[in-house]
Amino acid sequence: MEFKLVKLHTKLRLLNVLYRFLFTLCIASTSYATDPIDQRTADEARKLIDQGLESTIGFEVVKSLTTEVGPRLAGTKAEARARNWGVAKFKELGFSNIRIEPFSVDHWERRHEHVQILSPFPQNLVVSTLGGSISTPPGGIAGEIVSFPTLQSLKDAPLSGLEGKIVFVDEYMTRTQGGSGYGIAVRKRSGAANEAGKRGAVAALIRSVGTDHHRFAHTGQMTYEEGVRKVPVAALSAPDADQLQRALEIGSVRVKLDLHVEAKGRVESGNVIAEIPGKSDEIVLIGAHLDSWDLGTGAVDDGAGVGITVGAAKLILDLNKTPKRTIRVVMFGSEEVGLVGARAYVAKHKDSLINHMVGAESDFGAGKIWRFETNFAPEKLYLADAIHKILEPLGIGRGHNNASGGPDIGPMREQGVPAVTLKQNGWDYFDYHHTADDTLDKVDPSDIAQNVAAYAAFTWIVANLEDDFRPRDP
Amino acid sequence: MEFKLVKLHTKLRLLNVLYRFLFTLCIASTSYATDPIDQRTADEARKLIDQGLESTIGFEVVKSLTTEVGPRLAGTKAEARARNWGVAKFKELGFSNIRIEPFSVDHWERRHEHVQILSPFPQNLVVSTLGGSISTPPGGIAGEIVSFPTLQSLKDAPLSGLEGKIVFVDEYMTRTQGGSGYGIAVRKRSGAANEAGKRGAVAALIRSVGTDHHRFAHTGQMTYEEGVRKVPVAALSAPDADQLQRALEIGSVRVKLDLHVEAKGRVESGNVIAEIPGKSDEIVLIGAHLDSWDLGTGAVDDGAGVGITVGAAKLILDLNKTPKRTIRVVMFGSEEVGLVGARAYVAKHKDSLINHMVGAESDFGAGKIWRFETNFAPEKLYLADAIHKILEPLGIGRGHNNASGGPDIGPMREQGVPAVTLKQNGWDYFDYHHTADDTLDKVDPSDIAQNVAAYAAFTWIVANLEDDFRPRDP
Predict the structure, then answer these.
(1) Are residues B243 and A68, on separate chains, in Cβ contact within 8 Å?
(2) How far apart are CA A471 and CA A418, in angstroms?
């Protein structure tokens, strides 16, 4: 009995060894036959993921930027300090080819803003003048409120009849994980003043483009249409928009706006760039924007993105291996006021855009990445699938093939540069977006670590891939 | 078989009827023998609970006050408008003996406040000057920050060595359902400036007394000690206190404070009072405070309390029955600046305080009531148990016998008036307390309805009780 058992045991062990050998052989050959990511790169990418999840580098970079610079509005001295910070940080971390690529931008700064209900219930309202808005006349401007539930309802109104009035566009924004509510809600930011101006109104107010219910007004850029009479415009916090709505339910409401801004013409801004040089002049571009709005310290928008992409590149740097392609990290300047840095980048690098393998910007807050989106030639989607397999253990699903790549990737994407979005969970992004409440305490270090892990693995793979994402026969 | 079953069924039915009859008899006799609340009053109280839970009157009153008056700081024109609102609201609802009982209060209003880090990282900080603070000298005052983790650590410091410095007391507050963290944390509100002044410092900053992590500074009253050199003091929002803390970890920090307040001496304030006259001159007093801080619309503090107590009294009024005792509803003025209205009430009514059966103020936000606390003579606690039985179905537990009755009840409690606290869940109360974010959207109508139900039942019972809560042989 004993003897028989030992024999059986030996047989089973042999079978097991044989089975495992054949299985390994099978896996290896499959991998060799179909996986476009070579085994070494894949292993290194997985190692970067493990290191990223353990690393605090991303959070440390956000913390440093938001503490040591704080708010850094495009074109201000604070943004200039942020560029110096960027150069110093890149040097401290050991990057190569560090430089500032300067460009100019329109100056705009808020000086003071004061809005109050004059009658029937005198009280102050919390507002933020929208970026680009003109000032009210000295001493402010008063008028009766005419309310519109949506921008469309204002557009549908006759082109007269609002003379001397103050328009209030009370459109709400829908909260979604992917941020799809923003595209619709943000139209009123320029639309309210433009449509008010066309109809003779003297000023405009909007319900903030945001999803929170705290007493923070959300600022953001607005642009006057050519030839339209300019009127000043400000955003009310959600509780203040509610308050105005309730007052209007009772009767006619007169409001006074006293908004003072300063605009000094063209001033200097710039992109801060650093590299991990590769064996070729092909470029894998990751980045984020360095500027922020003036109200908060820009932790969520977009200090987080700076931390994530710089942190990811630093992990790669510490591999101490030369990638096939050059990894370029860009801190874009003056994003918030109209992608000015992104356009300057494309203008300066137009001849080498063909060498840009991919562009990916982290600019959707500090939430975990949940989807890998691409904008590749259809015949190159097998590469997306292969990269996604490596990222999947981070809780990242496979997304569509219409990735924007992030706002600052837009202009190069238009020029044919393939784009990737490592899409973050934006469920609470528009609670903080463009408010005074966008501060470091809203950033979760473990979420940043997941982002760093994903960016490091993704960037390393693309920097070492045989193939690229462009059409085979362009 | 059929016949037998029918017989059994009939027997069981008879037994059931007998059992129910005996049970009812038993309950009724028990109730008669030991319950100090007569059956009719108990039934009416239960009816008031049902009506309260269905009613929107409490929320409508908070909405009206916070919309039609808004912020209403003690001694301001806004508080005077609130008194007029109170008189009009009482009239509209059909109360009797409506009047304003005037008194005077020290005037204090904030004009502007601007605090910035000068070096090493220039940026603005979100602050609120504390009520009662003096202004900084014209043009502001600058100095190096000396940080203390607690008020106690500042008190432990030598009585010199802070000359020319700006003291920062970075003490945190603990979140609890009952608000016990407040009593400890609030000490720094007066303590920081007083201890800073004693030690030669030129100004003081504190981490806000609050539990939130948004960019709202919490204001609140501070008082200078006699003979101590006065220095200006302001509270930083929690994210700004964090920011200052991080900057201090890196090195020395210089800050500039520019705080401007106005104090015009004594001005008029008042308590707004209305009644449901009873058959005797004994008084059951419920109330809340009418004034608020200047930053928010005072929905949670204490519009909610006004809504709850006025709403409860209105339900009683609509019973259209004359209670044994007079029900008095008081909207106290100038609570926030030092219980000035409560003291004026006691001074004016000192001769009739002996007739005050009980005082109960609702001033702990807009959360559900979870505990019935009393301050009765020990031999009268059987009454507390009986009242509690009626309130229990609302999810209200039986609490201790050391109830404060609410801040404005304090002065009359000191004179022997029994107190009751219908203790609210204050878990998030100090997120909004004394901030700009204290607005109507923070008030849940269904929570207010539960409060109205409890106050209506409690008030009606006490107004019709045979016994009282004072010692049998005083």
Answers:
(1) no
(2) 10
